[in-house]
Specification:
The strands form 3 sheets. The protein has a 7-stranded mixed beta sheet, with helices on both faces. A 3-stranded antiparallel beta sheet has the order 4-3-12. By secondary structure, it is an alpha/beta fold.
């Protein structure tokens, strides 16, 4: 039976457009995707300068500048409507291309956003973003809000899970799709997978692998949710991390495993095509 799916997703040009395109491909055949929200980080609360300072402390100036150039380049390609590796360079372009209604929100819990979602009567809300869902939003869908998290929960809950796992020398890193509860990253497990981490794998490579495989894993998770196949998250071995400290950033930089320049440019080197947009 078809379910009404709503997607709340970060708008950034690197990983989430590939995730969004994959979700449309994997879920659109069996379910109705009734809308998307682009969940934008609210610099009005934290401040743009503070965010930049945190990023420089994390990556260091050379890596920060490389990532900035990539972001500008991808932004230009997004505006131009270019598709490479099967996806545009913005989630908004993905939604437009497939005729999916799309809105932007700096706070997914605000009353206007809640009212919009309620009018669409979603059975399931799929989340891949940095916003914290509050009670009214969590209880809104008929079945559940489900979240994509790049770790084998209950280990490495919270922020930057791949960074923290690699910093601590983990040889495998997972991805979990779980139901969302008021307690962050502590819902029931719907689907999980694991990746081996090789000695030369970068953080960028692991996230690329994770986002590329996530649509299929989310499809499996939704099937498990509908069929009632859910696993209680173990309380043992649980760990939770916040934003990396400056000293952790310096330590990770010393391993030279944030990214390689070729990884940042690889997608741009793929054959390009102009994205056709829907008139819906």
């Amino acid at each position: 039976m078809k379910k009404r799916i709503y997607i709340i997703i970060s708008e950034e040009p690197v990983f989430h457009p590939i995730l969004a395109e994959g979700l449309v491909r994997e879920l659109g055949r069996e379910h109705d995707i009734v809308g998307m929200t682009l969940a934008i980080g609210d610099t009005r609360k934290i401040g743009f300068a503070t965010r930049m300072s945190e990023a420089i402390g994390m990556f260091g100036i050379p890596a920060f500048l490389c990532l900035g150039v990539q972001s500008v380049l991808y932004g230009i390609l997004a505006v131009a409507g270019i598709r490479q590796c099967g996806a545009p360079f913005s989630v908004k372009r993905v939604a437009s291309r497939h005729g999916i209604p799309c809105v932007t929100s700096y706070n997914v819990n605000e009353p206007a956003h809640i009212a919009l979602l309620r009018s669409l009567r979603p059975d399931i809300i799929v989340s891949s973003n940095g916003h914290i869902f509050r009670g009214e939003l969590l209880s809104l869908p008929a079945l559940a809000c489900i979240n994509r998290h790049t770790s084998s929960l209950p280990r490495y809950g919270g922020l930057w899970p791949v960074f923290h796992a690699m910093l601590r020398g983990e040889k495998t890193i997972g991805q979990t799709i779980h139901t969302m509860t008021p307690a962050i990253d502590q819902g029931r497990i719907l689907a999980q997978e694991k990746f081996d981490v090789g000695p030369v794998d970068t953080l960028y490579a692991i996230y690329s692998r994770s986002f590329s495989s996530a649509p299929g894993l989310i499809k499996t998770a939704i099937a498990n949710l509908v069929e009632g196949r859910k696993t209680e998250m173990p309380s043992a071995d649980r760990s939770y991390f916040g934003h990396p400290t400056a000293s952790e950033g310096r330590s990770f930089r010393g391993s030279h495993r944030f990214f390689r320049i070729g990884e940042l440019l690889r997608r741009c080197a793929a054959p390009a095509e102009r994205s056709a947009e829907s008139n819906h």
